[in-house]
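Chain A, query sequence.
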Amino acid sequence: MWHKTGNMTNSSHGSLPGIDTSLLAAYGVDDALLKVWLEAFPRLLPIQARAVAEFNLFSGQNLLIFAPTSSGKTFVGEMAAVAAARKNRRAFYLLPLKSLAEEKFEQFHERYGDLGLKIAVSSRDRKEHDRAIERGDFDIAIVVFEKMDSLLVSKPTLLADIGVVIIDEMQMLTDESRGPR
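Chain A, predicted structure.
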């Protein structure tokens, strides 16, 4: 299901065929980034193609995606975060688990480090980037939900100049077993 702010467009997980990732150049994706994405994802899955073509993923509009597991939602978030960062609009990529944050940090660092993007990670166990995040000295910050709460308490204006916030596994936000104890 799709929810687009403003117009509140809804439709079910669709039958739009995937598109060749190289066609993202028509949506303003620069050549260096396009090369990285082509190596990792030669074709976009239908949900990814719809996010770009129908819902203007790169326009800076709000977009909320609900779809089945393995449908391609995570790469939609990755595309939004990286495209924003390439346009000097910082991104927060929020995840529910330290292990997922660590995995995403390693993946982003490996995939986008050569593009000059500053990737930071923050969790209870990974604090070495916290000061850089608080100063805004990052392009993409990958942060565990509870750590984001802590960062916002210490610096309430943290989101003031952020281009995009991705919340992956959003259903975990309401899990009563999470949070401070």
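Confidence is low (pLDDT under 50) at residues 1-16. The helical segments are 31-40, 46-53, 73-86, 98-112, 130-135, 145-154.
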